[in-house]
Write a structure and sequence with these properties.
The complex is a heterodimer of chains A (120) and B (691).
Chain A: E1 3-7, H1 11-23, E2 27-31, H2 34-43, E3 48-52, H3 60-68, E4 78-82, H4 87-96, E5 100-103, H5 108-119
Parallel strand pairs in A: 1-2, 1-3, 3-4, 4-5
Helix pairs in contact in A: 2-3
Chain B: H1 7-36, H2 42-61, H3 65-83, H4 90-111, H5 118-131, E1 155-163, H6 174-184, E2 186-192, E3 210-217, H7 221-227, E4 235-242, E5 248-250, H8 278-291, H9 300-322, H10 331-358, E6 360-362, H11 364-367, H12 370-381, E7 385-390, E8 395-397, H13 398-419, H14 423-428, E9 435-444, E10 447-454, H15 461-470, H16 482-489, H17 509-519, E11 523-529, E12 533-541, E13 545-554, E14 557-562, E15 566-571, E16 577-578, E17 586-589, E18 592-598, H18 599-603, E19 616-622, E20 625-631, E21 633-642, H19 645-648, E22 655-660, E23 666-670, H20 672-690
């Protein structure tokens, strides 16, 4: 239904998210790091992007900041997937331009419900 | 321990285990690096933190709560390092290394569907918690599931929601939020258009609207706040409860985060030295896991090579197929047939070699476990040891590799326990307090040699003899020769150690080591100097050796010089050559004097000499000395498969083996050390003659 990109350096987690979303009928693309995600985002348009925070090289926040500079992604929802519940971290994420967050470990139905709400 | 997993989780669990084991290796290397260096490198700390964080999140996502919990405790401590609130002391790092073992053990147990001790896990977590007790705000524990809401009554809330103008640029959408709100109960909304500019001034990415209204339903304040959780800070939000009698109670702020309280421990955290039982058990467990390597990782280029070989085989086959036909086999066809068969033989051989090559792996895989082992043992024994590793790219057949692991572990333990002395003793002997242990692997003349070298106190010959006499292995007047002495050292139960330690026991392992190596077709050699150190060499015959070689031409023949032996190659400048009557020529290379050798002469290539005017000199290292080999031409550099001369012909001094080049011709591989010896011997002869 929607075009979603998921970004995470951990293959198992990335696939967990991707396949959960694909199972619900979404069209999912994957990226293993911030740099790849940026170049994919430039080539295709996505309705939603889900990114981990904790990645080598370009971390999640840098990725979001750079993504927001692209005209096509000014207002596209970007969710960060994280175990961090720290308010300071959340604030940082918002300041970087993130729309909201999803907590790890995630419940698949909750993930899908949140996605549905964001994409409506 | 049963896991409730979805099908998807189950499918991806294998990947998760793989990733986690890789991560743990990185974590371990990082921790050891932090321990070695005097300054805590922030990048290493970050990398190490990231791995712990990853494993915590991953384990949680796959329902592995206990693993996630241990990873969380480690992450907390590492975060303390990151924030500078705690320093990576050797004790703290050792504790973290225990954590690594714990995680590894738990992951393996889960993967193999075994249980593990909840109790020791709990204790480890407690110690980690204690060690991080002093840190500042730390990452929250893995999220706990929310408890179901208690029965509730209908309430009414009044709210005002005014997004800041840039709210849309975070990807949030007020309409969506209001829709969510509407799902919680009966919503009455009024929009505030006061900030809305004229159409021309309107910017599509900015938000100009605000809303206020009421929500009635069986909702809590927390649930309403939850709807707006993502836009906190990007909007003005006021929610107040409207009580039945009309009074308005200002909403109390409720925390929406879940933080686990930290109980600071008052007693000092005894970051205990790893118990003797733990370290060997951990490494033993790992040894078992590695021993039965059911699958191997193969570099893609090896597979490509294999594909090429198969391709050539197909070509040869079709060529032979073409020769089929009517008519008698004339001489021409027979000739082609012979050619084809020769080609077939070569292709098959290449294919065989390529497949065998798949089974060979760098010895670094075995050497890799030693930094950790040496670190743990060193701490346990109170000895300071630096581990040096060389030749980790030397490739061995997989089965040989697997059998080599345990013997090496035993030898290393011996070196650390009985070889390298305690720091005070070393100081008293005028040695640096930091002992050195070297693990080396290299090819020598068709064998592979793996050495364990220490600069400890060596093996005292007199003590060995005395002990042997005590044990009745030697008669009271028997003076053993070198070989006999070696046999004694490897005799079952032989040990000059005065006490049994937990670490290496009473030397019971040495005979097992020798037996293992012999079963691989090799042997063990001991070279020791009392007071200076010991070198134990394992010599193993190669089933398949592949070396990087430099092809050279001498006359019409091509030879291979092992690349590892080559120091450099130079064009000979005659003015730098000094001739000595009756002795070798010497070359002055910068400030070094290098004896020159005419390979034609050494190898007996008849009728040719390499004249100094047109020669190239390949400077090689032979037994620690430099020798210059004169050749006609430098050809390609390539990998060559070493074929044993000994098994096919006989041992020839100066030659390490032979190889078959791509065009089918045979090329000898030079044994540089052997050539050096030949040269010295002919010197001596000529010297005698001249005299």
């Amino acid at each position: 239904m929607a075009k979603i990109m998921t970004v995470d350096d951990s293959v198992s987690l990335r696939k967990l998210v991707a396949q959960t979303l694909a199972g619900a009928g979404h069209d999912v693309a994957e990226a293993a790091n911030g740099a790849d995600a940026l170049s994919t985002a430039k080539q295709k348009t996505f309705d939603l992007i889900i990114s981990d925070l904790n990645m080598p090289g370009m971390d999640g926040l840098s990725f979001v900041r750079q993504l927001r500079q692209l005209a096509a992604y000014r207002t596209v929802p970007v969710l960060i997937l994280t175990t961090e519940m720290d308010p300071a971290k959340k604030k940082e994420a918002k300041e970087a331009g993130a729309t909201g967050w999803l907590v790890k470990p995630f419940d698949p139905s909750q993930l899908l419900a949140t996605i549905r709400k964001v994409l409506d | 321990m049963t896991l409730q997993l979805t099908d998807l989780q189950r499918q991806l669990l294998g990947t998760f285990f793989e990733e986690s084991f890789e991560g743990l290796e990185q974590l371990e290397t990082g921790l050891l690096a932090l321990e070695r260096s005097s300054k805590a490198d922030p990048e290493t700390i970050n990398d190490v933190f990231r791995v712990a964080h990853s494993i915590k999140g991953g384990a949680g996502s796959f329902g592995l709560a206990a693993i996630s919990r241990l990873a969380h405790e480690m992450e907390t401590l590492l975060d303390g390092f990151r924030a500078g609130a705690l320093s990576p002391t050797p004790d703290a790092l050792s504790l973290l290394l225990e954590g690594v073992d714990g995680l590894r053990g738990m992951l393996e147990a889960t993967r193999d569907e075994r249980g593990y001790s909840e109790e020791s896990l709990g204790r480890l977590c407690e110690r980690l918690k204690a060690a991080s007790a002093r840190s500042a705000p730390h990452p929250a524990a893995p999220a706990e599931p929310q408890s179901p809401p208690a029965a509730r009554s209908e309430r009414t809330f009044a709210f005002r929601f005014e997004p800041h103008s840039h709210l849309l640029e975070s990807g949030n959408e007020p309409v969506r939020l209001l829709r969510e709100l509407a799902r919680l109960g009966a919503l009455k909304l009024e929009v505030d258009r006061s900030r809305l500019p004229g159409l021309r001034a309107l910017e599509p990415n900015l938000c100009y609207l605000g809303w206020h209204g009421t929500l009635r339903g069986a909702v809590t304040l927390a649930e309403i706040k939850e709807v707006f959780a993502w836009v906190e800070g990007d909007a003005d939000l006021e929610v107040t409860e409207v009580v039945a009698d009309g009074a308005v109670t200002p909403a109390a702020r409720q925390p929406t985060t879940n933080e686990e309280p930290v109980a600071p421990k008052t007693e000092a955290a005894p970051a205990a030295t790893p118990g003797a039982a733990n370290a060997p058990a951990a490494t033993a467990a790992r040894g078992d896991a590695e021993a039965g390597l059911g699958s191997i990782r193969v570099a893609v280029d090896k597979i490509d090579l294999l594909m090429n070989m198969v391709g050539e085989l197909v070509i040869t086959q079709s060529m032979l197929g073409e020769l089929e036909g009517d008519g008698p086999l004339d001489a021409h066809r027979v000739e082609r047939l012979r050619e084809g068969l020769g080609l077939l033989a070569r292709n098959t051989r290449s294919l065989q070699e390529s497949v065998m090559r798949l089974r060979s792996m760098p010895i670094g895989i075995v050497f890799n476990r030693f930094p950790r082992l040496v670190h743990d043992l060193g701490r346990q024994l109170g000895k300071e040891v630096e581990l040096k590793i060389a030749g980790q790219n030397t490739e061995l057949d997989k089965t040989v590799l697997e059998k080599l692991g345990d013997p090496l572990v035993h030898l290393v333990r011996n070196s650390l326990d009985h070889g390298i002395e305690a720091p005070e003793l070393r100081r008293a002997a005028g040695k640096p307090e930091l002992g050195t242990l070297e693990l080396r692997a290299y090819h020598r003349g068709g064998d592979i040699v793996v050495e364990v070298v220490d600069d400890g106190k060596g093996i005292d010959r007199t003590r060995v003899i005395a002990r042997a006499r005590e044990m009745g292995i030697l008669g009271p007047d028997e003076e053993p020769g070198e070989d006999a002495l070696r046999d004694i050292l490897f005799a079952p139960g032989f040990s000059t150690a005065k006490e049994v330690t937990n670490v290496s026991g009473r030397g019971v392992g040495m005979d097992v080591v020798r037996r293992n190596v012999k079963s691989l077709g090799g042997d063990v050699f001991v070279d020791t100097t009392p007071g200076r150190g010991t070198r134990i060499s394992l010599r193993l015959p190669l089933t398949l050796a592949i070396i990087d070689g430099q092809l050279i031409r001498v006359g019409v023949h091509a030879y291979v010089v092992p690349l590892l032996s080559i120091v450099e190659s130079v064009q000979v400048e005659p003015r730098r050559v000094t001739r000595f009557q009756g002795q070798r020529d010497i070359y002055r290379l910068r400030d070094e004097l290098i004896p020159m050798m005419d390979l034609c002469e050494v190898l007996g290539v008849s009728g040719q000499r390499v004249s100094v005017d047109e020669a190239l000199m390949v400077v090689v290292e032979a037994d620690g000395e430099h020798v210059g080999l004169l050749v006609h031409e430098l050809l390609a550099q390539q990998q060559v498969v070493v074929k044993s001369l000994e098994s096919n012909y006989g041992r020839v001094e100066g030659l390490a083996g032979a190889t078959i080049l791509g065009d089918g011709s045979v090329s000898f591989i030079l044994d540089v050390a052997g050539i050096g010896r030949l040269m010295r011997r002919s010197h001596a002869r000529e010297g005698v003659r001249a005299a």
